[in-house]
Design a protein that fits this description.
This protein has 190 residues and is α/β, with parallel strands linked by helices. It has one domain: 3-Layer(aba) Sandwich (Collagenase (Catalytic Domain)), CATH 3.40.390. It is globular. Bound molecules: zinc ion.
Length: 190
């Protein structure tokens, strides 16, 4: 019997909303290696580039808006990533080392997971029906191979705008944004 588990999960209880117009500090766990922190920063840069948000990775948080990003073995039982929108916001990721011993695979999984969960940090509580979206619910097969989205879809933009009504940054974000691998990150344009 195949037991289907959500690839990504978000807890809807205790919802709070961050102000995406203001800096949001992402604080990685003390056990995170430099390459992991760098990937978290790359994922944050993608959102900043596309939607003009102000996610920033720091180990010395100064913003009142802080997000703790850490690994959790427990959440691996039912998801690869979970964002709890309380105060402070907590992002829990299933360690990618459980999926593969290959660093390249671990990097891809961490990048895709971080990219997705940061959407929840930016107040998105739902998933896109478009499987190509950053905010897609993900497959239920637990595949080690996690495709990297090409970019943000119309579904992602709709979810972001619905989650952040009235947010009109100046200058606006770049559109389209291409999500790249080797190295992981985003560039303005295709
Ligand atoms: Zn999700």
């Amino acid at each position: 019997m195949r037991v289907c588990l959500p690839l990504f999960a978000v807890l809807l209880a205790a919802c709070s909303t961050l102000d995406v117009a203001q800096p949001i500090d992402l604080v990685a766990g003390a056990d995170w290696q430099p390459w992991e922190i760098q990937l978290l920063g790359s994922a944050a840069q993608c959102w900043n580039l596309r939607y003009a948000t102000k996610l920033q990775v720091t180990q010395s948080p100064r913003s009142v808006q802080q997000v703790a990003v850490s690994y959790s073995d427990f959440i691996c039982l039912y998801a690869r990533g979970v964002t709890e929108p309380g105060l402070p916001v907590q992002v829990y990721l299933c360690p990618s080392r459980y999926a593969s011993e290959l660093r390249s695979v671990q990097e891809r999984i961490l990048f895709v997971l971080a990219l997705h969960e940061l959407g929840h940090v930016l107040n998105i509580r739902y998933h896109s029906d478009d499987a190509n979206s950053v905010m897609a619910a993900g497959d239920a097969e637990g595949n080690v191979y996690m495709p990297v989205p090409d970019g943000f879809t119309d579904g992602d933009t709709r979810l972001f705008n619905e989650a952040n009504p009235g947010f009109e940054p100046s200058p606006p974000g770049c559109s389209p944004v291409a999500i790249h691998t080797f190295p992981f990150g985003c560039v303005c344009g295709r």
